[in-house]
Please model this.
Amino acid sequence: MAVSADVGNGKGLITIDLSNCNLAHSASLIRQACLDGGFFYVINHGIRQELFEELFDRSRTFFQLPLEEKMKVLKNKDFKGYTPLMDQMLDPSKQSTGDCKEGYYIGFEVAKDDPHATKRFFGPNVWPSADKLPGWKQTMEKYYQEALGVGRRVARLIALSLNLEADFFDKPEILEEPIAILRLLHYVDEISKPELGIYGAGAHSDFGLLTLLVTDEVSGLQICKNKDAEPQIWEDVHPLRGSTLHRVLLFGQERYSVAFFLEPGPDCLVECLPTCHSGSNPPKYFPVKYGDYLAQRFKDTSSESSSY
Model:
């Protein structure tokens, strides 16, 4: 599932108003949106427009650094830090090269001596030098915490939409101690050529529970509501000021976006929800520990062309 956290009313997509006190109504809208395709807009989420603007300014400042400076904060084993161009290939079956984007992963800040630091995807973040980018870390940490709060609020509505208790996902192993990942993304000023397997980001569905996505004003994001259709029908998701199959096409203009991936904790056993199966409708998939699943998805989408 992916959620656009922009402010406004998007044509063709359901809009969820987090200021609406009628939780049952909001939950029913989310259920409809998820059955329709998995994307919806979120408004009145409480994150100030000024913080969005600061976030994007800081992101541009980092990606404009020389490559040698960015390589000093290269992604570590816990997937925190910088990922160069072509590092990821989200649709190997159709792509001839890695995605035409570079990124930066930021996770929950855990000190080296914290008991959680030994778990996969936890541990300290990798930060650019404060001398090079003063205030950069503070902006990212502030947005991270605010996005985490919004994500938990949306997750409670998702729980209600599934006829579960609102706090179902608040358990320690799910969202109380989640793998929550903030990822800055910069798409270069190339032109996508799908017929040659060249994309800004190949077709994919996100890995975790939900994604909060905020974009700049440059178009390119597309969604496919029925991945099994032949041919697949791709619809533009227009950026607004302020896990469905999706991809990014480039039209010769730089593009920036920020994704916040809200994932269960590494020890969470992901299995069919109690309200989603019965004796006549058994679970379709075996349970899996989320940390193992996420590690495999990262491995599967790592581009063979990436080298550093």
